[in-house]
Amino acid sequence: MNPLGNLPNTAFFVTTIMDAQGMGADDWDELQRNLLATIPVYDRINRFATLGQVTRWRRMVRDMLPDGKILEVGCGPGSFAEDVIGRNLVCLDPIPEMLAAAEERVNSARRSRGDDPAIFVEGTAEELPFDDDSFDALCSLFSFRDWYDKKAGLSESLRVLRPGSSIIIVDPAKMNRAHGFLGILWMRVWVGAYARVVCGQRDHPWKWLTKTYSEFGTTRDYVSMLREVGFVDVKARVIFPGMATIWSARAP
Ligand SMILES: C[S@@+](CC[C@H](N)C(=O)[O-])C[C@H]1O[C@@H](n2cnc3c(N)ncnc32)[C@H](O)[C@@H]1O
Question: Does an H or E element contain 158, and which?
């Protein structure tokens, strides 16, 4: 996969090796093991990494959701889903332990508000276990970067969305190589130092944040990909303070 072979893995080289489409099976297996290890510290490190902005970004996405049936792809431990109020919510993730953590957290919040319980489904974006035209919106926050075949995942998203309904994706922004280089420095130095302290180990699972970000394409790459798979009204906005992009589009 690495076109530069054995060149040193410096931040500069990493920004130049982009695989905007996805990742190989071995990498994806290892990524899943690392994601699993992040569960106890996920929210704490995420808030630190984004200077607290993640709460505002999640609110922005929640405000964009219509009434009706919503699918969150890559729900993780339920950090976004917990505060989705009143909608008919389905949460999907490939890691059973993530789903268990999310179910407890999300459904206890929903019970306390009088909302019906959310449904938790094991699966991947690339093979969504749902019928065509099932949802009024699909969102994915900080997960798209990890999809092993992004084009397949977007095609599946389009298939399960009802005509006219929306997809909303949030992930770290990469406007160009220079911006990507700064992002990698931020993740390696700032987030890496904090994760080492919080996890109490040098070889902490947040190292994968830098790796998946390095291989992530630019904001524009995924505008093109959304169009290629058939979405319309494709928009992308890099949101303050320049660390994340919100992509939105509609099923025709
Ligand atoms: C960082 S968590 C995001 C949690 C949550 N959405 C949030 O707002 O913080 C990313 C999640 O995406 C899931 N994921 C990774 N690859 C995926 C794929 N191909 N399809 C669906 N989910 C995937 C991971 O298992 C992980 O739980």
Answer: helix 150-160
pLDDT level of residue 147 (50, 70, 90 thresholds): very high
Determine contact, residues 113/77, Cβ cutoff 8 Å: no
Among the listed residues 29, 39, 20, the one whose alpha carbon sits nearest the alpha carbon of residue 124: 29
Mean pLDDT over all residues of the chain? 86
pTM of the model: 0.88
Closest Cα to atom 17 of ligand 1: 147
For ligand 1, atom 19: residue with the closest CA: 147
| Alpha-carbon dihedral sign for residues 121, 123, 124, 127 | negative
Q: Would strands 244-250 and 135-141 be described as parallel, antiparallel, or unpaired?
A: unpaired
Q: How far is residue 228 CA from its own chain's centroid?
A: 20
Q: Is 95 in the pocket of ligand 1 (CB under 6 A)?
A: yes
Domains, the chain, ranges and CATH?
26-175+216-250 (3.40.50.150)
**pLDDT tens, residue by residue, 89-106:** 999 999 999 999 999 999
